[in-house]
Amino acid sequence: MYDTLKALAAQLLMPMPLMLAGVVAGLVLRGVGRRRLGNALGIGAVGLLVLASWAPVADRLLEPLEQRYPAMVMPLATPAEAIVVLGGGWHPATEWPVTAQLSESSLPRLVEGLRLWHAQPEALLIVSGGNSEPSLPGVAVGYARAAKALGVPDASLAVLDSARNTGEEARAVRDRLGEGASIVLVTSASHMPRAKRHFEAAGLYPQPAPTHFLTGRHSGGWRYWLPGAEHLAKTERALYEWLGRLAVRWEHDSPS
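Request: output the structure for the sequence above.
Response:
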């Protein structure tokens, strides 16, 4: 129940639902005679959506998360027992190649995990991620299929496909390796600060290996200054992670 409420709250606090709520509230106010207040609320809601879709705002929100940790450089200063690739999205379809079935966040995570594993092949490659529907296979299964197709032997691969969120992934890795294990943690750069805290709370020692950077890609042309869906997605990503960090702080700092 808690996970469901948390996911629902995060979705409702995204720019688009908030804008729609503001517009609807504005129309209601206009209908009851509060035209000036209704107009102000509706225009403000649309204006906030435009700002959320504007690259300078989106990048300013997301960059502090993505720049928290630098990209991983091999060899490692401290050897790791495992390279852990956290789950993202997976869309299994038999007519697609296994790499195309992974989402735009999952594919760079797996590729980075494979790069690091090839630099330290004695480490275990752990792929993680379940599915909110227990009857459906998790993203870890998709990771494993792609990793095997790209040359990772079964003996070097561990599949943890039951965890539905980052906290559960951290505990699943701890159960697999034991408390105190040193790992390389691979996930999207914006997700890394929150993920690292989950793994530390589980008693592990994660070395961050961020990937899937969304900011810093603009070329400085005029398109950068126009609102767009890709910038709105960055704002949503940033808000989701900031809200998630608040939830992590509450979960781990509140008395049991």
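The mean pLDDT is 89.
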